[in-house]
Amino acid sequence: MTEAMNVEIELKFIATPEVAEQLSQRLAPWPNVHTAAQKLTNIYYETADNTLRSYDIGLRIRGYGDRYEMTLKTAGKTVGGLHQRPEFNVDLKAAELDIHLLPAEVWPEGCDLQALQAALSPVFSTHFTREKWVVTYRSSEIEVALDQGEVKAGELSEPLYEIELELKSGSREDLLSFAQELTAEGGLRLGSLSKAARGYHLAKGNPDRQIVPLGILKVAPKASVEQGMSDAFTFALRHWQANEEVWLHGDRKAQKTVLEAIELLRQIFALFGGLVPRKASTALRAGLTELEEQLATPRLDAKKVCFSPLYLNTQLALTRWIATAEWRSFVTDKTQTKLNGSFKRFADIMLGRTGAELKEAFEHVQHGGEYQDKYVRLVRQLLLFHVLSGAYPEEAVAEYLSGWQTLQQAIIQKQDAYIESTRKHAMDQPTFWLNGTQKPSVND
C-alpha cells in the first residue's frame, strides 16, 4: 500500500462530441507524448445523510486494469474552471473501501471513523475511457486528459465528454495561456461542476435545476480592499456559472440571470476603477460588453452561446484575471497601499456614494417616461449593494433593498398609479451602513 498527497492544479472543460473527436488534431502544433485510451471505473461513496458533503469531502475508488486506488478530495479552491485542491491517494489490493488507510488529519476532529465506514455506501459511478497527452508548452509540462463515457446513478445517466488540463510542472500562467490557445476555436465551456457534483445531482433523482438568486457577498472580517475585489469577481463568476448550468438544462429564464452576472462584473470593474487602471482590463471588459450585447437578445440557443469562442474566452480571461491577480502589474506602490487597506471601510464609503446617487436620481421624477430612463441606472446601483453589504445583518440589507426592488418592479410593469408611492417608500429607507459620524468596529 502507498499513500500520497498532492495539490492538483487543473482546468476542466465540458466538450462537444465533435471537439472530443478532434482533440488529437488540436494538440498537433505542440510537442506531446500520447498514451492510449484506458477504461476507468469510479465508484463514489456517501452516507444516507451526506456526511462527506458536509465535510466538503469526495471519496471514491477507481479501478483501472487490475489496479485499484482510493482517493479522497477536499474542497480546495475553484475559480471558473480552474480547480486547486488537495487530494489523498491510497493503493488498494481490491475494490474494498477502507477509510482507516487514509491519513488521520483529513478527518474533522471527533469524527468516528468506524461509524462512518459502516455508514458509507456507493451512490453513483462514472464509466469512461481516458486518453492522455503530455504537452510541452513554453517551460511547462501539461497533461491533457480526454474522458468519454457516462455518469450513472441507479437507472439515471448522462453523457460525459470532459477535457482536463493538469499542470505537471511549470507555471499556472502557462497552463492558462495554453488553455486559451487550445480552446480558441470553440466547442468547449469551462466545467465548474465536477463529475462528483453531477453524480450527486443524478443520485437525487436528477431534479430540475433551479435559478440561483444573487446573494450577498461575504468576505473575511479583516479583508483588504484587494481581497474584497478578488472575492467580488469570484462571487460574480460563480453566479454566472451556476445559472449557466440552469440555462443549459432548459430553463430559458436563466438567460436573464446569466446576463445579470455579466452586468454585475462590469459594475465591479467600475467600482474599483479608481484603484485599478482601465488599461489593465481593456480586453476583458470588451469581451464582457460584447457578450452582454449578445445576451440581450431574447430566447437564444443556450448551447450555441455557451460553447462559443467569445463566451469561453471571456470566462477564461476572467479566470486568469482572478487566479493570477493580473491587475498587480498595472498598479503603483501608492495604489497598492490603498488596495492593502480595509475593505470594510471601502465598502462603507461606496455604500454611502451608491445610496446617495440612488436618492439623487429619484429625488424629482416628473413622469413615467423618466422612470424608464432611470431604470438601467437603478439596476446597476442595486447590483453593487450585493457586493458591498456583507458586513451587515442580512435582515437590514434585505429591508433596504426591498424598497428599491419594489420600485424596480413597478417601473418594469409600468404601474403608473402605484409608482409614485413606491418611489417615496424607497427614498425613505434608512441606511444600514456605517457613516462618517459612527465609530468603526473592531473588525475594520
UniProtKB/TrEMBL annotation:
Keywords on record: Lyase
All residue ranges annotated as the CHAD domain in the record: 222-439
Residues covered by the CYTH domain: 6-206
InterPro entries xref list: CHAD_dom, CYTH-like_dom_sf, CYTH_domain, YgiF
CDD domains: CYTH-like_Pase_CHAD (cd07756)
Coiled coil: none
Statement: the UniProt record of this protein carries the keyword Lyase: yes
EC number assigned by the record: 4.6.1.1
Molecular functions per Gene Ontology: adenylate cyclase activity; inorganic triphosphate phosphatase activity; metal ion binding
Name of the protein described by the UniProt record: Adenylate cyclase
